[in-house]
C-alpha cells in the first residue's frame, strides 16, 4: 500500500514541476549538446531519446538490443537527423 502512495506522490510532484516549467514559458533546448542514453531501445530510454531529439540534442543510445536501437534512431516521425550513434552492449551469456 505504501508503494502506491509513494508512486502517487512522485507522479503529482512530477506533474507540478512540469506545470511550473511550462508556466514559466522558458524554452529548453539541447542544441549543440550530446546526450548518452542507456537502455535506449525501449521503454523510458526510447521515449527520452525522442524527447531529447526533439530538443535538438545529438544522441548516443546504448543497449543490448542493437536492432531496436537502430529502429529508434531511424524513426523519421520522431527522431531528428543529428549525429547518432548506437552501441550494442552484449549480455553476459553472449560473451561466453
How would the blueprint of this fold be written?
Blueprint: H1 2-24, E1 34-38, H2 43-54, E2 58-63, H3 66-74, E3 84-88, H4 92-95
Parallel strand pairs: 1-2, 2-3
Give the helix tally: 4
Named CATH architecture of the domain at 28-90 = 3-Layer(aba) Sandwich
Form type: flat
How is the CATH topology of the domain at 28-90 named?
Rossmann fold
Biggest sheet overview: 3 strands, parallel
Q: Termini, distance in Å? A: 42 Å
| Proportion of residues in helical segments | 40-55%
What would you give as the CATH superfamily of the domain at 28-90?
Answer: NAD(P)-binding Rossmann-like Domain
CATH top level assignment of the domain at 28-90 = Alpha Beta
Structural class designation: alpha/beta
**On the 0-100 scale, what is the average pLDDT?**
75
Number of strands: 3
User: Helix and strand string, N-terminal first?
Assistant: HEHEHEH
What percentage of the residues does DSSP assign to strands (E)?
A: 15-25%
Amino acid at each position: 500500500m505504501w508503494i502506491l502512495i509513494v508512486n502517487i506522490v512522485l507522479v503529482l510532484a512530477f506533474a507540478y514541476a512540469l506545470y511550473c516549467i511550462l508556466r514559466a514559458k522558458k524554452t529548453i533546448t539541447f542544441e549543440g549538446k550530446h546526450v548518452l542514453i542507456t537502455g535506449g531501445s525501449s521503454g523510458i530510454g526510447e521515449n527520452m531519446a525522442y524527447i531529447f531529439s526533439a530538443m535538438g540534442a545529438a544522441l548516443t543510445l546504448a543497449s543490448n538490443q542493437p536492432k531496436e536501437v537502430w529502429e529508434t534512431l531511424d524513426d523519421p516521425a520522431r527522431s531528428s537527423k543529428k549525429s547518432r550513434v548506437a552501441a550494442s552492449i552484449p549480455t553476459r551469456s553472449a560473451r561466453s
